[in-house]
Amino acid sequence: MSYARVEIAPSILAADFARLGEQVRAVEQGGADVIHVDVMDGSFVPNISIGVPVVASLRKATQLPLDVHLMIDRPERYIEDFVRAGANRVLVHQEATPHLDRALSMIRELGAEAGAAINPGTPVVMLNDVLGKMDTVLVMSVNPGFGGQQFIPGAFEKIRHLNEWRARYNAAYRIEVDGGVDLENAAELAQAGANTFVAGTSIFHTPDPAAATREMRRLASKAFSQRV
After folding, report:
1. Between 52-61 and 20-29, two packed helices, what is the crossing angle to 10 degrees?
2. How confident is the model at residue 228, as a pLDDT?
3. What CATH number is attached to the domain comprising 96?
4. Are the beta carbons of 117 and 38 closer than 8 angstroms?
5. Which range of residues forms the domain containing residue 195?
6. Which of 16, 41, 46, 209 counts the highest number of beta carbons within 10 A?
7. What is the DSSP string of 133-175?
8. 3-state DSSP: the chain helix, strand, coil percent, rounded to 5?
9. Judging by beta carbons within 10 Å of its beta carbon (0-12, 13-18, 19+), is residue 150 exposed, middle or buried?
C-alpha cells in the first residue's frame, strides 16, 4: 500500500527564518521526506505566518515535496496560488470551508495531492463522506495557531479510528499527525497508525536538527513496521 512507509515532515514554523535555506538543508541531510509549511491567516487561527512567496522561495531551495497546511478561512480562494507556487500537497481544514468536497477536488484537478485536517474538537466521522478523495488525513494534536504546544492525547484514538477505516476499506490515505510530536511519542503514534510525522520544535529547536530528524525516523519506522 502507498501508506506503508513512515515520513518525517519537519515544520518550518519552528525554523530560524533568517537561516531558512540552511535549516531546510540540515533536515534534508537528516533524511526528511517532506517539508511541512504552515499557512495561517489570523482569522481561522489566532496567528499570521507565511504566504505564497515563501512557498515559491522554498520550491527553489529544496527538491523535497512541500506539504502546505492551509489554516485559513475559505481556502478555495488560494489553493491554485499555492499549487502554482510549488505545493505538492495541500491540506485544508474541514472546519474552514462548507465545501470540503469541492476543495479537495480542486486540489487534485490542479495536480497536487489533497488532504483534510481536523482540529482536536472535531470528530473523525466528519470526514467519512470524503475519505475517497483524500491522499492524506491530518490529525491536529494541538489547537492550531502556534508551535511548541503540548500534545493532546485524544489524537491517539482518532488515529486508531482512521487506521481501522483504512484497513477496512482498503484505502490508501496517509495519516499525518501535527502538534507536540517528539521523540517521546513518535513510536506510540506510529503504533496507532500514523505514518507522516510533522515536527517543528522537537527538530529545529535542537542543537542538531539533522540528528533529531534521523532519530525520529528510527523510532517511528521501527514501531510502524512492527504493526504492519
Report:
1. 50
2. 58
3. 3.20.20.70
4. no
5. 7-227
6. 209
7. G-SEEEEESS-TT-SSPPP-TTHHHHHHHHHHHHHHTT---EE
8. 45, 20, 35
9. exposed
In tens, the pLDDT along 110-135 reads 999 999 999 999 999 999 999 999 99
Active site residues: 38, 178
Report d(CA 14, CA 83) in Å as an integer. 23
Amino acid at 205: H
Contact 136, 174 (CB under 8 A): yes
Whether 178 and 202 have beta carbons less than 8 Å apart is answered as no
Structurally, how many domains does the chain consist of? 1
Q: What is the pTM of this model?
A: 0.94
CA distances from 203 to 14, 30, 89, 161 (A): 8, 10, 21, 28
> For 2-24, how does the pLDDT look when each residue is reduced to its tens digit (9 = 90+)?
567 899 999 999 999 999 999 99
